[in-house]
Structure formats: structure tokens, C-alpha cells
Amino acid sequence: MHPFNQRIQSALAARQSQGLYRSRTCLERQDCQVLDTGSLSQASSPHHAKRCLNFSSNDYLGLAQSPALVEAWQQGLTRYGAGSGASPLVTGYQPAHHRLEKQLADWLGYDRALLFSSGFGANQALLFTLLQKGDLLIQDKLNHASLMEAGMLSEATMRRFAHNDTDALAQLLAKQTNVTSAETVKMVVTEGVFSMDGDCAPLAAMQTLCHAHQSLLAVDDAHGCGVLGDEGRGSCDQAGIRPDILVVTFGKAFGLQGAAILCNEDLAEYLVQFARHYIYSTAIPPAQAHALSQACSMIQQQHWRREKLQELGHILAEALDPAVELVATDTPIKPVLVGDSQRAVAMSEQLRDRGIWVSAIRPPTVPVNSSRLRITLTANHEPSDIRQLANAINEVFHAQ
Ligand code: PMP
């Protein structure tokens, strides 16, 4: 066998033997239900054609299938056609993109917003383009893979601090200040809401530390924007801060796809000139930008969606057996800690048998021995759905 094929096969076999092999399930989705038609599953799948309540989507506000958003996208398609046809610096940047950028910048309080086709790409562009050799990048240990990978590949020196530990961050900033020069750019990067834990970063304290050490602060608010803060402005608004750079993504509360970097005029122009992920990538379809403008308006105006999420969170906390290790969060991400990855998978499968879809999250996505069921709530769930979820978890928990 060719060594390349051997390498691939042994990596796959290692994943299998560690019990960490991931497989995709092809699901049809309707409101807060998913239907596993078994179209891609193996014939022996015990979950063939099963309808489940979906507690694993990031569509927190329930916008992804809302008629108003679907209609906006259709309207965009009729007006602008299917695709943008080019990258933004060629002919891909169109009035629908411009209007969305302006709307985001005004809403979130920045000079400029720059659109990207994914949050992963936006984070890569941000760290690769702004940081150079000799610079210092400081990240929370639990930051998203897109930030970690960009940091590891960037020429800047990367340091990580224990999750949400501002003392550790302060020490790191103080220590590094002694070894850096006046020219060194320092950047602290954190998520606003951590995707696997659902907890919020201590943003106010972090901003104070960054100011004291002349460091930039960048916040990836993929999971906070739309859900927290006044008019859904996100975790920074809730914490009363305005970081130098804010990343928002559209695959979660916006119910769509894509991302934006918010920053000052010069930084935005620097990214337009030098960010390869921006310059050499096709602009998102203008119809999508049009739909995103509609999502942005709905987020600002429809407070009831955020209020309902809070109410559903309280119902869940009350209905779960106290022995179940539900992490208390202020966000729609409600992890139930299990620890052992095989037990987490078994619980997820047993929940599926009871008509509940909750994914088991295992290493390497989360640290070893911290496997969990990651429950996410959406504004489309009803209190009765939450009670059904809690009853099923209570049963499965005690059956283990
Ligand atoms: N940042 C965070 C914190 C995320 O959770 C994700 C997606 N899960 C991303 C960035 C990437 O965003 P996208 O899905 O738009 O690529």
C-alpha cells in the first residue's frame, strides 16, 4: 500500500479505536424537529426515519425557517439573481452588501463592517492579516478552532490563558510586557459566549486589562450576537464594553450563513487591501445579504424571541433532576456534563430513541473527560418541548 493511503487508513482506524469517530447524519429539518430519513445512514441504523425534537441547532432565535426571512431571500433572488459573480474587489461587492455593512456598523456601533462568507474565514483573515512576526497573540484556551488554528499558523507568538481566568491573563500580559518592545502589537482574543460551555467571557475585566497593557481586544461573538444585550447587540453590549474588533457570524442567531468583522475605518481598509480570505474569495450572494438585512431588523425588533429563550431556560433548569449536571448559563447553550465520552454517546442515542436529538460533544472538541450533551434552545421551542426533553434526560440519566 502507498504510504499516503496507509497514513490515512491508520488515522481513521485510530479514531475508531478511541471511540471518537464522527459520522454525519443526513437530516431533514422542520421548525424545531429533525427527521432522520436514513438516506445516508447505514442500513442497520436503529434511528431509521425517526422524527425528533431538535435540541442541537444554533438557530437560537428560530429565524432560519421563518417565513419573513425565506421571503426576504426569495425577494433578493428575484432582484439580484443567484450569485455575486466575483470577489468583492472585482465586481462582487453590490448595493445589498453595502447596505448590510452599513446596517451592521450602525447597529453595533463601529465605523465599518466587512462581510465574509464564513466565521471561520473571518477569524483566519483577522489573525493572519493583522498580526506579524514579533507580535503577541493571547487567547483563551477554549477559543474556537478557527481562532486557535489561525494563531498557530500566524507568525505572531501565541500564548493561551486558562479559560475565563482574568488573573492568568493579567499575569501573562505583565510577563510579556517585560519581553516585548514598543512596536509589538498585542492582541487578546476571546469568544463572547463560549460555544461548548455557554458561559460568557469576563469582558469588562478583560477590556480594563487590555487598556492597562496597551493591548487590542478582539471578541468573536458568534454565539452572543442576536441573543444577548440591548436589541440583541451581543455580549459586549451586555458587558458594557466596545472591543477594538468584533466578529459576528450569521450561522447562529441570524439563521443564515456568513460573518462580519467590525472595526474602525483604517483597520477595515487594511483588511480590504491585505486580507487574502477577503480579496480572493467570492462575495456572498447579494440575495443572501438582502436576507441578512431582514434578519438584522428582526433581531433588533423582536425582543420576544430573547425573552422566550430566557423563559425556556428557566423551565429546563426546574424540570431536570438535581442529580443531572446541568451547567447554569444565561445563554441558550445548556450543557449537561457527562465526563466519559462513551457514556455521552450512549445517552445521546437513548435520547434519540425517545424522540430527542441532542448531540454528544467529545474530545477533541472539548477537553478529555469533559464530554457532554450540548443542549441548545431556540425561540421556536415550546414549554412542552422542554418538559419532554427534561423527562427524557432524567430517564436516561438514571438508566445509565
Ligand atoms: N467562531 C465561533 C465561536 C464558532 O462557534 C463558529 C462556528 N461554530 C465559528 C466562529 C465559525 O463560524 P462559521 O460557522 O460561520 O464558519
From TrEMBL:
> What does the UniProt keyword field contain?
Acyltransferase, Biotin biosynthesis, Pyridoxal phosphate, Transferase
GO biological process terms, alphabetically, are: biotin biosynthetic process
Cofactors named for this entry = pyridoxal 5'-phosphate
What are the GO MF terms of this UniProt record? 8-amino-7-oxononanoate synthase activity; pyridoxal phosphate binding
What residues bear N6-(pyridoxal phosphate)lysine in this entry? Answer: K252
What pathway is this protein said to act in by its record? Cofactor biosynthesis; biotin biosynthesis
Query: Oligomeric state and partners?
Result: Homodimer.
Reported function? Catalyzes the decarboxylative condensation of pimeloyl-[acyl-carrier protein] and L-alanine to produce 8-amino-7-oxononanoate (AON), [acyl-carrier protein], and carbon dioxide.
Protein name per UniProt: 8-amino-7-oxononanoate synthase
Origin species:
Photobacterium ganghwense
